[in-house]
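Complex record, two chains
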Amino acid sequence: MIAIDEGYVDSAAPNPEAAKNGRGLVLKNKFTALNISADATILFGECQGSGKEPYRCSCDFARPDKPAHRCSCPSRQFPCKHCLGLMYAYAQKKKFTEAAVPEDLQAKREKLQARAEKKDADADKPRQVNLPALAKKIKAQLDGIDVLERLTGDLVRLGIGNMNAKLAREMEDQAKQLGNAYLPGAQAALHNYTKLFAGDDGKFAEQSSAYRERIYSEALDQLSRLHALVKQGRAYLKRRLDDPELKPETDSAIAAWLGHAWQLRELKDAGLVETDAELVQLAFNSHDDVARQEYVDTGVWLTLANGRIRLTQNFRPYRAAKFIKSDDSFFQVAQVKELCVYPGNVNPRIRWEGMLSRPLEPKDLETIRGHGQADFAAVVKEVKTHLKGPLADKQPIHALNFKRLGRAGDTLIAEDAKGERLALTDAGMSEEPPSCHLLSLLPRDSFAGNTLIARFRHDLDTRKLQIKPLSIVTRSAIIRLTL
Amino acid sequence: MSIAILTEVYDEMRRLAIAGSVVAGGDFRLKKLVPALEQAGAKAPVFAKVAEAVKAVVASDEKTSGPALLELTTLVNAILYTQGETGAPGNLEAIETIDLGAPTAQVGAGVIKPLLEALTTTGSGRLELIRDAHERGAFRDLRLVKAALDALDDTYAEIGAFIADRVLPLYGTAILPELRARFDMKGRGGHPRRLRLMHALDPAGSRDTVKQALDGGSKEVKIVAIECLGEPDDLSYLLEQSTAKAQEVRQAAYRALAVIDDDGAIAVLQKALEGKDLDLAAGALRTNRNPKLLSRLLAAADGELAALAKVKDKKDISPRITRLMSLLSCLGGRDDRESEAFVLKVFGKRDELAKIKGGLHFSGSDVNTTVVHLMVDGTNALSAALVDAHATLPPNDLWVCFQAARRTLPAAKVYDIFSPYATAKVDEKKKQRDDAWAKREAIFDALGCLSPTFSPVRYQVRSQPADREDEAPALDPRWLDLAIETNHLGLVMSLIRPGHDAANAFLEKNFRETFKSAKKLEDCQNIVGCMIRAGHPGAEDAYVAVLEKFGKKTDYFGYYATLLVDLPKSAIPRLEALIPSLSEKMSDTLLGSLQELRMKA
């Protein structure tokens, strides 16, 4: 049995309320049976609920990095309060009776074990694809691309200046066809355009002319993106239709743009996996994406071995937000056995199943600083090359080793050892809260010879490439400037 | 690369995209750029590509114009993305910083987010969360600065005030730029707070803003701006504002003039003192220490006192008394001999004043009450004089006199002077009509109110942690004996202290009686609370017994649940064992307090 303390259970809870309720069940003596298997790999018990029959819950630690929680209650929270209560009871050293694992539970365990073994075995086997079904899906997607092309054409013919709240609403209704055509990514891309004409709350309302003037350039860029998505998406889907054996493309993010939900196995099959990775979170934010109708928790992580900066993204749709555990800031080093990396260029998405952790040490900070790029000109060149792709992530994140952070007039500046400068701004980067103003609250020694974790953005109106500070990595700490 | 021509192309295609691509076909402004693009294309092929894309747009019809325009946009944007300007001219200067003190940025999003929500949303319970976070030093996290600044405009004024007074000063001058940027002199709500804060953080630097606010600010901002004045240069302006039409403006001007040592300022305050603005200027008159003004103040008060004795018409009494009381209130907080002598003089006339009846409003007895309060908060000599006169005071003033005695005399002396009132023979039937009864009750009241443990302390502490002051000196221990002797349960509960055998026995006896006759949980909660505070050996049993008797029948017992936090931790298993027998709702309430007890150091 792994070591379980109350902190472990707290962090396993999907939200604080579930943790409180789980703890309460123990205090209310709701558990009528507390058992542990002879090999101490599973906790199981019975918890009295509001009904006649108690809920049967269990926490299976046969795979310590991927515990399995099972419960007969109807809760959609995972783990539910009964499983949490069971773990709290164990953490609080309540008396667990050694008992044989019930048959049905043992059957489930064996099934899970078999599934895991099969999964491992299948990992080496080529995957069976239902080709006719896939072809049918691709045809539907191609029809969806036609719809997207028509809608984009309508928008351009109409003109950005003639867009209004009513039309934006109608366009969103029509965009539902894209979701039905297995193109949720394309649907979200269209929403990104229409939401430019909505307020911060995501509701459409007539905007002032000054506000509209500010969004025109961004709107034009979004239309150009939709156009590129139509072209590249159609070409990609046609290639896949012509060759049904063709795997989703891993050289670019086009599959994700069309809404392909990558399975970890697919990523592993495609070789997009790093083993025994150690990661440090450099920044974290949780924002409300009104276009996607979901909350997005984004972690910015650096892999200690290779210095690549990648993102974890936890999507919590409004409708199910209560049942999905939100991510949180992470201040230790995550040790991941298999790190799966999504296709993408600068900051691709990453995911993993199960991790261990260890404390962050000064040598880790030195490693991070060692991965920072000291030559701003080279970074800028890299960023510009990346940005010119119409479907590229327009706000890439890099680690920059600056010589000085200072001010020229009202402009905050990061300067490298060669005197190359990058201006700091919050403009146009609303995913995280503003951070520039926080520099004036930092200790003076943060401004020389440290590493800045920065998000780049090219402003289409001013034609300036500027950065937003997310964190500063000093010799002793990671100072987070955003949330 | 000739970016200028590309920029022109971008501007034209942006114009067409705004207007709609249907008007793009044959667009002459775009067409005009083709030769220049072709010329540049001879050197850099990418321009030739742009020229082709432009020609396609110009040659397009209604059907093809959309894709053609988007092709051009994609191409031009891709090029412009590679031409983004970086850097910034000018000398690189150091960023002015202020060190917030402790390392700050290591708080998890899960912790900081509720606080951010409290600062940026509406709803109840936010002030307590913010206060709590402030006490724990959470605002040292620099990521909260912006939200705290925004909270100045909170719709709940108490939050805005708390943030302005307690939280934002933590950040010092670092927040000045943001305060300046957001300040709207025509605004209300948070804007007066911004101005006050800017002035407090940087009086010299915010002087111009203050002056501008004086000229063009909203009424609320202007009042704060006036209060921010106080330099000799401001005199003429303040003198002018002292005649303003709006009362609040005049009041602010008086306050600002009070700190300027100038004959003109004194003259204005003197005029207010003698005129209708006396109440408006009372605060300023209390603050000012100019001897001339004091002498005018005393002369005016003396004049009113003398005139009062001569008034014949009953209608004139109340206005005169009101004015005399206002003048007397201006003497509060003074320690000079002249003021002291005058207060004593008025106190000496209390019998005469008590006889003056003033109709519906104020009478001479109200002047006496004002004087008594001045003496309680005044110099030691005034307090001593008040205590010396305790036997002659009416019951209402005896209560105040007891406070003065506690502040100035040793606890034993206070007991010697005032305990006879508590043990005096009284007529219980006459009640208020019996002077001895009224005086005894006044002393009991004073003892009860002064004790921090009389009322539900935990609630007080939670709701007003910052304002609570418990500075009263200890009482003589004999008071508790007296309370037991007089069989006064309320007083025992008020004065209880741990380790008093007689009190413990008294409480045990009373608990048994109360418990036996109690019909609901509330009947027992005060005495059980008292036993817990006293560290009574039977407190745990009593708490459990009440819970066992009434726990299943009671719908809500939030206060009773909070009492258990002061029980010893050894009581936890016993209380936890009770939880299954309680209703779901009640056990949830008790769980919160149990958790608090568990977390206690």
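Note: Chain A has a mean pLDDT of 89.
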